[in-house]
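Customer escalation, tier 2.

The customer says the design service returned an amino acid string that "doesn't look like it belongs to this structure." They asked us to rerun it and document both sides in this ticket. The original structure tokens are below, unchanged.
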């Protein structure tokens, strides 16, 4: 994979940071993309300290012009981006009757519009190369989750997007798959614990009791699944949704 370039969105921290580091370990040059370019620097340093190649790229995935410029910059500095991980995400949880239109729009913009814009920009390079991998972050919330009417709709949407990308891009050697995590300990889930008034340790302990493997997930669990979908050997796996949730009940 040493000649390949990946873009990981939302990679300044959490799952995205771990995915970026894992793909770099796999031999890819990695664009660490997030809203704040400076915030990506620590991940770039982690990768380069381990002997990998990475650059920090600041862009809002929901901004069409910024996405186009970011993808062109990656192509110029690292080579044609043929692996794309649509990981950037936000939550704006509330019960339906309290959810604002802004909360709905913000979540749709980052997850769905963001994944659409990034995929459309990157496919130009993938189809030209005749090889590509798109990996989208869905969630167990796609199956429904109280207080997340916006997020669950977006994460279910990511699954439809994935399957259609797989159908349209397959003939160009491009696969598209989704990873749907259960509970993963990151700043996102830490914020949820804070919102419901529970300490993060108690929150994780409560999750562990419900999960068959008896622990909360960690970003490396997701990075491992992404690494598989990004690999050369996974070329006959496309349009799939892999739940990574410590058990069969998503
Ligand atoms: P996180 O710690 O909150 O990290 C998300 C990253 O995305 C942040 O660095 C954030 O930047 C960035 N981001 C937000 N909006 C963006 C935008 N418009 N453009 C570019 N970057 C943007 O979240 P995480 O827990 O690692 O989650 C990563 C992905 O996995 C998300 O898609 C999430 O929905 C999904 N997921 C997570 C879990 C879980 O349990 N953690 C479970 C299922 C699915 P800022 O810091 O600047 O906001």
């Amino acid at each position: 994979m040493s000649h390949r370039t990946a873009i990981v969105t939302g990679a300044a921290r959490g799952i995205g940071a771990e995915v970026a580091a894992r793909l770099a370990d796999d031999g890819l040059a990695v664009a660490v993309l997030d809203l704040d370019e400076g915030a990506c620097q620590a991940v770039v340093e982690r990768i380069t300290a381990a002997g990998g190649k990475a650059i920090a790229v600041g862009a809002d995935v929901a901004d069409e012009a910024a996405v186009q410029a970011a993808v062109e910059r990656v192509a110029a500095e690292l080579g044609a981006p043929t692996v794309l991980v649509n990981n950037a995400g936000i939550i704006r949880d509330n019960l339906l009757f309290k959810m604002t239109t802004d909360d709905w729009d913000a979540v749709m913009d980052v997850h769905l519009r963001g994944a659409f814009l990034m995929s459309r920009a990157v496919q130009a390079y993938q189809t030209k190369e005749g090889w590509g991998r798109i990996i989208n972050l869905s969630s167990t919330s796609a199956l429904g989750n109280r207080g997340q009417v916006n997020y669950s709709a977006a994460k279910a949407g990511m699954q439809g997007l994935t399957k259609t990308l797989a159908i349209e891009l397959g003939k160009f050697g491009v696969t598209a798959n989704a990873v749907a995590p259960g509970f993963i300990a990151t700043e996102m889930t830490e914020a949820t614990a804070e919102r419901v008034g529970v300490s993060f340790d108690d929150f994780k302990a409560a999750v562990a009791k419900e999960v068959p493997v008896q622990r909360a997930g960690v970003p490396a669990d997701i990075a491992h699944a992404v690494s598989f979908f990004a690999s050369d050997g996974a070329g006959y796996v496309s349009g799939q949704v892999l739940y990574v949730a410590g058990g069969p009940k998503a």
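Tier 2 assessment: The sequence is consistent with the input. Residues 32 and 56 are 5 Å apart (CA to CA). Residues 9-10, 12-16, 34-36, 60-62, 87-90, 110, 114, 137, 139, 181, 183-184, 186-189 surround NAP (CB under 6 Å). Sent an explanation to the customer and offered a walkthrough call.
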